[in-house]
Specification:
- The protein is mainly α.
- The protein has 5 helices and no strands.
């Protein structure tokens, strides 16, 4: 199985299921941004692994495409990776 190139990964549609889409539209714009950033980082780290610095660079490309502010610190990625998932 081949891995998607990182340049294509940032264009990936993260909200794919109807149930998730219904939940997502009820969030404020800031909550939507944080939800997508967290989901992107978790998915990226599970597919590519790599360092927090590499993930931050790709995350910032994703944020620019989505119209979000870019992140300045690797600590953002580190904190997201350390968070417990709320399920």
């Amino acid at each position: 199985m081949s891995v998607m190139p990182k340049e294509e990964f940032i264009k990936l549609e993260l909200i794919t299921e109807e149930k998730e889409r219904n939940f997502f539209v009820q969030l404020t714009s800031k909550q939507q941004e944080m939800y997508l950033v967290r989901k992107f980082v978790r998915l990226y780290k599970s597919v590519y692994g790599g360092t927090h610095k590499e993930c931050l660079e790709i995350l910032n490309q994703f944020c620019i495409l989505q119209g979000f502010k870019t992140r300045k610190s690797e600590k953002t990625v580190s904190n997201i990776c350390l968070e417990k998932r709320k399920e």
